[in-house]
Each structure stands twice: as structure tokens, then as C-alpha cells.
Amino acid sequence: MSFAEKVVLIIGASSGIGASTAIEFTKVGANVVIVGRKEDKLQIVATECKKNGQDPLVIKADISIDDDITRIVQETIDKCGKIDILVNNAGIVRFGSILKGNLMNAFDEIIKTNLRGIMKVTTLVAPYIIKTKGNIVNISSVAGQSVPKHPLFTSYVISKAGLDIFTKATAVELAPHGVRVNAISPGPVYTDIIENMGLKLDEEILKTFEQIKTALNRVSTPEEVANMIMYLSGNKCVGVTGSNFVLDNGMLLT
Ligand SMILES: NC(=O)c1ccc[n+]([C@@H]2O[C@H](COP(=O)([O-])OP(=O)(O)OC[C@H]3O[C@@H](n4cnc5c(N)ncnc54)[C@H](OP(=O)(O)O)[C@@H]3O)[C@@H](O)[C@H]2O)c1
């Protein structure tokens, strides 16, 4: 599958799934725009992309800030002229529960990135993606389809359930313009997501993660998710929109 001449905007590309997605897309000729808050990590990803012959546009930005989102879209259009594929991958986990008294703090922080930020990005990118008849892939989670395994995950689960509905609503709204919108719901994947929670891994948190089981008894690599993103956004999937692909090693079966 070739993505030559395609412009792929990846929101949340400084580590994990987004970083792998950028690297994999450059292997098949795409021009990638990589976005995140940590410039040092973005530069490491950019170096890997350059090894594949593509020099990515690096944008240090925080999608919980509206002005940053405006700048992401403006810089992408100024430098690349168009957007063919939007990968809404940015996401954070914060713990909070009713009885711990920190549910609303976790909710407010998570929603600003995982849902409101992604919705705002999509809103500003939509006019450009309509021009290219491109497509959007949202990175959700199996968490959005299940009762939280632990109350500490409540806000994260709500954000991903919201993203699942947003995916379908956007698919309906943009379909008449020839734009496809899909989601991928991973189970556990080896990434920087726990490190990025800024948590000390105490006994309670370790126990929380130990409760995560998969039927195949394995954890995915970020490349596995990147491959599914490329499949969904490529021309083999012209008839797929409003779908939510589960890639969870059978976690929902357990
Ligand atoms: N790892 C898993 O087990 C798993 C399972 C299911 C779903 N997911 C989902 O997969 C997606 C990618 O996560 P990951 O596992 O690859 O974790 P990760 O390594 O922590 O990557 C998250 C990416 O999002 C970016 N990001 C976070 N907040 C941002 C903000 N406000 N503005 C701009 N960029 C932001 C981070 O960059 P900066 O820190 O530089 O801002 C980073 O590039 C997330 O949506 C996550 O919910 C992960």
C-alpha cells in the first residue's frame, strides 16, 4: 500500500502508538506532521522518520489549549498545503474515584485532551479533509466498551465511550462529503502511557494493572496498532466508515 504524496497529521506522535504510526507511514512515502507537547521526544521520532527518507513537520502543541489547535492546523496547511489523513491518537490516563475525592479533577484533565481536544481538532481539520476526500482514524480503547475494571479508571472510560460516539456522529456528518471516520480500540499496548501518568507505581496501582487480562495472554506492540491505522486509512477500506475495530488480544472476551 502506498501513501506517496499523502499528508498525514498525527496528533500525539511523540511516543507509543503515534510515534510508530509516524515511522510506519514514512516507510510507505507519506509526509507526516507530528504533534505533541514534548519536543525532545518529537525530535527522536523525527530522526527515525528521516531514516525513511521523509522529513516530518514537527509541531510542539497541547491540544487541551484551543489556540494551539488553531496553530497545528494553520502550520500544517501553510507547510504541507493539505491534509489527507488525520490520526487522533493523543490520550492520557489520570486516576480518580468518587470515594478518593478526586474524580472531578481526573475527569476535567482527561476530557480536555481525550475528548474536547480531539473534537476541536476534528472540527478545524474537517474543511481540509473534505477537500481531499480523506479520512480520520480515532484511537479509542476497549475501555470505552466495558465497565471499568477499577473505579480509578472511570474518567478514562467515559472519555473513550464519548470518543466512540463522536466517531459515529462524525462519520454520519462527513459521509456526504466523501470522508470516512473510524476508530480503533486497543487493549493493552507497550507504550509510555503509564510513565506519562506521572505516577509512582505503588502497590494499589500495580494491582490495578494486574487485573488487566487478555485471552491471548499477550500485550500488543505499537506497530500492530499502526498497521491497523494504515489499513483503515488506505484505499483497501473505501467502504468502511463509522466502524470501531477492536485490537485487544481478546481482552473483551475475558
Ligand atoms: N497503551 C495502551 O495500553 C492503550 C490501550 C488502549 C488505548 N490507548 C490509547 O492509545 C493512544 C496513544 O497512547 P499510547 O499508549 O501510545 O501512550 P503514550 O506513549 O503516552 O502516547 C500518548 C501521546 O499523546 C500525546 N499527548 C497527550 N496529551 C496531549 C496533549 N494534551 N496535546 C498533545 N499531545 C498529547 C503524548 O505526547 P506528549 O506527552 O509529548 O504531549 C504522546 O505522544 C491514547 O489515546 C490511549 O488512550 C492506549
Question: Mind explaining what this structure looks like?
Answer:
It is a single chain. This protein is an alpha/beta fold. Helices cover 44% and strands 14% of the residues. It is built from seven helices and seven strands. A seven-stranded parallel β-sheet has the order 3-2-1-4-5-6-7, with helices on both faces. The longest helix has 30 residues, at 103-132. The radius of gyration is 17 Å and the shape is globular. The chain starts with 6 loop residues before the first strand and ends in a 7-residue tail after the last strand. The structure holds NADP nicotinamide-adenine-dinucleotide phosphate. The site of NADP nicotinamide-adenine-dinucleotide phosphate has 30 residues, from helix 1, strand 2 and helix 4.
Keywords:
254 residues; Rossmann fold
Count every beta strand, where a strand is a DSSP E run of 2 or more residues.
7
What does the average pLDDT come to?
A: 95
Overall morphology = globular
**CATH fold topology:** Rossmann fold
Output the helix-strand order.
Answer: EHEHEHEHEHEHHE
Name the CATH class: Alpha Beta
Radius of gyration: 17 Å
- What ligands does this structure carry? NADP nicotinamide-adenine-dinucleotide phosphate
**CATH architectural grouping:** 3-Layer(aba) Sandwich
